[in-house]
Amino acid sequence: MTQHIPRKRFGQNFLQDTRVIEDIVRAVRPERTDTVIEIGPGLGAITRPLLDRLDHLHVVEIDRDIIERLRSEFPPERLTIHAGDALAFDFASVGPGPLKIVGNLPYNISTPLLFHLAGFGQRVTDMHFMLQKEVVDRMVAAPSSADYGRLSVMLQYRFEMEEILAVPPDAFWPPPKVDSAVVRMIPLPGRAGVADDEARLEDTVSRAFAQRRKTLRNNLKGLADEADFAALGIDPGLRPENLPVEDYVRLSNHLGKKHGKSGA
């Protein structure tokens, strides 16, 4: 079979470092009967060692050439290939039962894909992803740090996360121009309180971070007033990165009671 030429439009950088591959698979800890979904299997660097430990594996792949390669190498009783865009894939359709999700996520769609995956947290045991290092830094950032933002809040609301592995560019072919890292995400509902309306929480957080250099008072003008902040004991002069996740949840719930329907 001819050599696959990486496609820039799919953000393809193929993992080739055997030590990194072994570390990722060891972190996933697949058991023989687990339901595991791999996003973007590429040339099978993680797919093969996963299948050594699993009875069956699901993969989501958009590249038709790679799909044909996978079909020629792995029988359907061992590997189910879901052809299409991971951004549109219904991960809850795989199962029943709990899911483990793993992948070397395309850097060009990593943030929207993480938000998409967050919606399936109730079915997931854990997720392990290779991502651009700066994205992982934002995911795990603490309040009052430069990397803390909308992505931090919305993922930390749902998941316990930690960076478990740093990965240099030369671990890939072709090597990307950025450093990478592997992050572990474990769903922990209620870890920062429970939002009465998650759509409202997302809207509140998006508005708060619309202009990072402005205060909560300015960014949330028309949504929250001085009385709202006072009722919650939140300083409206804070910048959005200074507010912890649980305070965004409290603020969202308070505004829901004040304004009524989601997004009102």
UniProtKB/TrEMBL annotation:
Subcellular locations according to the entry: Cytoplasm
Its EC number is 2.1.1.182
Q: Look up the domain of life of the source.
A: Bacteria
Q: What does it catalyze?
A: adenosine(1518)/adenosine(1519) in 16S rRNA + 4 S-adenosyl-L-methionine = N(6)-dimethyladenosine(1518)/N(6)-dimethyladenosine(1519) in 16S rRNA + 4 S-adenosyl-L-homocysteine + 4 H(+)
Q: Where is the Ribosomal RNA adenine methylase transferase N-terminal domain positioned along the sequence? A: 20-189
The UniProt entry, under Pfam families, shows:
RrnaAD
KW Cell membrane (keyword) present: no
CDD domains in UniProt: AdoMet_MTases
Q: Does the keyword Metal-binding apply?
A: no
Q: Where does S-adenosyl-L-methionine bind?
A: N13, L15, G40, E61, D85, N104
Q: Example GO molecular function term?
A: 16S rRNA (adenine(1518)-N(6)/adenine(1519)-N(6))-dimethyltransferase activity
Q: Which PROSITE patterns match?
A: RRNA_A_DIMETH (PS01131), SAM_RNA_A_N6_MT (PS51689)
Q: Mind listing the UniProt keywords for this protein, alphabetically? A: Cytoplasm, Methyltransferase, RNA-binding, rRNA processing, S-adenosyl-L-methionine, Transferase
Q: Name one GO cellular component term.
A: cytosol
Q: Which InterPro entries match?
A: KsgA/Erm, rRNA_Ade_diMease-like_C, rRNA_Ade_Mease_Trfase_CS, rRNA_Ade_methylase_Trfase_N, rRNA_adenine_dimethylase, SAM-dependent_MTases_sf
Role: Specifically dimethylates two adjacent adenosines (A1518 and A1519) in the loop of a conserved hairpin near the 3'-end of 16S rRNA in the 30S particle. May play a critical role in biogenesis of 30S subunits.
Family as reported in the entry's similarity comment: Belongs to the class I-like SAM-binding methyltransferase superfamily. rRNA adenine N(6)-methyltransferase family. RsmA subfamily.
- State what protein this is by name: Ribosomal RNA small subunit methyltransferase A
